[in-house]
Amino acid sequence: MEMSFRWYGSDDPVTLDHIKQIPGMKGIVSAIYDLPVGEVWPYEKIINLKQSIEAKGLRLNVIESVPVHEDIKLGRDTRDHWIENYKKTLINLAKAEIRTVCYNFMPVFDWTRSELQASLPDGSNSLLYNEEKVVNIDPISGELELPGWDLSYQTSDLRQIIEEYQKVSEEQLMENLIYFLERVIPAAEAEDVLMAIHPDDPPWGIFGLPRIMTSKENIVYMLKQVDSRHNGITFCTGSYGANPDNNLLEMLEAAEGRIHFVHARNVKWLGERSFQETSHLASDGSINLPVILRKLSQLGFEGPIRPDHGRMIWGEEGRPGYGLYDRALGAAYINGIIDLLHVQKED
Ligand code: CS2
Ligand code: MN
Question: How many whole angstroms separate alpha carbon 225 and alpha carbon 284?
């Protein structure tokens, strides 16, 4: 597995020099952040990003994410134009020898939490989701603004988009995803780019919007409908694992050969549709990373893996979930597990 770290570019308070000092760190997961969703990513911008990372002795191994235009998710008539753009971006990424692209198909809002700085018993803080709080929030009010959300929409557009989604069932949203994949995957095959869809986080509908990358059944359906190795998934343990009904080991088996990227994160279930992110350590939360990594190794997974969100510890301030210290601890923990798995294989 190729140990990797998410980096938000030159504006990120966490620098490549910091990341380089984490033992075993090889890959950088990043994106072009200054283009409107749907626009073709120019080769120049991609190669500049890649070279700035290589200059520090690291490798741009995954793009997270190339966002999918809302017209594609909504199935609007204009979607074909945005799909063609998406294909052009893949071609430019392949030209820069980038082989893995993470994306998601969540309507409007990316990962959602009700609290960004919820205390943990050890005095640190982390992201928390409490459904009771979320149901009382109007996402358009501005009361809740999360760092993963694209708030470039005008409020009036946002209201219209949310209204339009009221007519989109989960089945329809899935059909819109398949429509997108049927057109994009042939390009990904031709360019040898592995597409890896990220789960919906949390893995259930929020604000009355449909969500589909939530369960084993839906993963299997989506993989079968477009049955190509290039149509794969990002296995995010914390996103799928937020729902105790998801059996992560069974999900990994069901997606054998189609897992192209792994996000390693731990969450603690607090009750019905409520959870808090914890350190990566198995005994701190409800997700057992050693068992998951053993399964991935048995399935022959050798792709990129990154510690996902971390807590805020040691007084660090920064982008919620994406500080340096706890993600570095997570990487060290994951490295230890992987080393032990290697030793056991040799026995
Ligand atoms: C999140 C998401 O769980 C996560 O990794 O930080 O923002 C994720 O990067 C996107 O949904 C992937 O498209
Ligand atoms: Mn993730």
Answer: 38
| pLDDT surpasses 80 at 156 | no
pLDDT band at 34 (very low <50, low <70, confident <90, very high): very high
Residues of the chain with pLDDT > 70, as a percent, come to 98
Ligand 1 residue neighbourhood (C-beta within 6 Å): 64-65, 102-104, 110-111, 148, 198, 201, 236, 239, 263, 308
Closest ligand, as measured to the CA of 201: 1
Catalytic (active site) residue 342: no
- Residue 274 CB contacts under 8 Å (≥ 6 apart), including other chains: 128, 129, 130, 131, 132
The torsion region of residue 123 among left (phi > 0), alpha (psi -120 to 50) and beta comes to left
191 CA → ligand 1 middle, Å: 24
The runs of H, that is alpha helices, within the chain are: 16-20, 43-54, 70-74, 79-95, 131-134, 155-165, 170-191, 216-225, 237-240, 248-254, 289-298, 325-346
pLDDT, mean of residues 176-198: 98
- CA proximity to 184, closest of 73, 250, 89, 266: 89
Rounded Cα distance, 203 and 240, in Å: 6
Of the residues 102, 129, 198, 230, only one is catalytic, namely 198
Give dist(CA 184, CA 175) in Å, integer. 14
Assess whether pLDDT exceeds 80 at residue 144: no
Atom of ligand 1 nearest to the CA of 234: 12
Q: How many CB atoms lie within 10 A of CB 119?
A: 12
Rg (CA), the chain: 19
Average pLDDT, the chain: 95
Please identify which of the residues 165, 200, 236, 333 carries the catalytic annotation: 236
Told to judge if 102 belongs to the known catalytic residues of this protein, a careful annotator would answer no
Which of 3.50.50.60, 3.20.20.150, 1.10.357.10, 3.60.150.10 is the CATH number of 2-346?
A: 3.20.20.150
